[in-house]
Amino acid sequence: MESLPKLAFVARRQPRLRDLPGHRLRLPACLSAMARSLSAALAIILPIAAPQAAAQEQPAAPTEETVASLAAGRVVIAVVKGAILVATVENPIEADTHPPTPVAIGSGRLGVILGAVRWSSPSSRQEIARLDEDLPHLRSRAITQAPHLTTEPVGTEATDLESVGQGLLDRLNEVAQNLHDKVDLPANEPLTELILAGYQPDYGPEVWHLAYAMKQREEQPGYFTTRVLLPSYLQFWPPEKGQPRTLIEFAYPPENVPTTLLELLRQKDPRLQKLIASDPKMAEVAGRFLAGESNKALASDATQFLRAALDAIAPPNTRETMAIITEENGFSWILPPPPETPLPGLRPARPNDAPSLLHPSQ
To answer: How far is CA 100 from CA 88, 189, 281, 297, in A?
Structure first.
């Protein structure tokens, strides 16, 4: 049997995410309703069956596992003239790491999930959820009145953004409801993060970061209920008045975060200096980023610069992606994700003919 992906949940263990190789956690997927029914039945049968039970011990029921693979790496966003560029670079913290991958959400927005993204059960060999593939289809009609995503009167666009955030929350809670042992995540470290970038009609480009924390309550000794909390919303674009308009970058996991591309430019990193010296257009784009004027950089030049810059600083053999959103044409790929090798024998959560990341419009 293949090795388990990164984040696993198994019975009666209390590991910390930072303490385990490849960030692996373990927890049970207990079936509480079945357990209560079984207890009631045993209460009736036990006086009759006790002599036989004493003569022959029954083996313990096997513990089901829920395993989550991580989307790990950096996400670099450049809001340039007439377009939003989103580039990702994988951080291969383990063999089953997923590269952060832009996913089209409608025509004018994309999302990138970081953290726990692929959930499966090795014992049943069933994929439970692929959050990146689910994301375009996740919507919630139960939208809270706060937080609002703009200070302007709330319109359909803000409601749609919140519906995506709430839809992912609902999906996470579907998965997390079967986690009943104690999980110790590092302080302030979310289970999953969602980056949303796109154009809001009559407003312009926006970039948002949503973080989903997890909370547990001990119902009885050693038995916990688990729920994922309402996400926090942080807006990264447009910046506050007077603040620079430059590269935005996110990274997962949050420990040992690599130096950002913008900071490497400021430090005159030799790998980037070589690129800048090779072409006046590359020098101009770098100058726009350093001056806080990314919105004045041409999309074609910025695309060429980001591809070359990330290639220069990425570790060898790491997977990269890049997508672009324009107001006129919406989402399109510049560098699509490479084909993914499925885990042997694992039944997918979505049908094989369902829309894929490579063909979001199918």
So the answer is: 6, 17, 28, 25
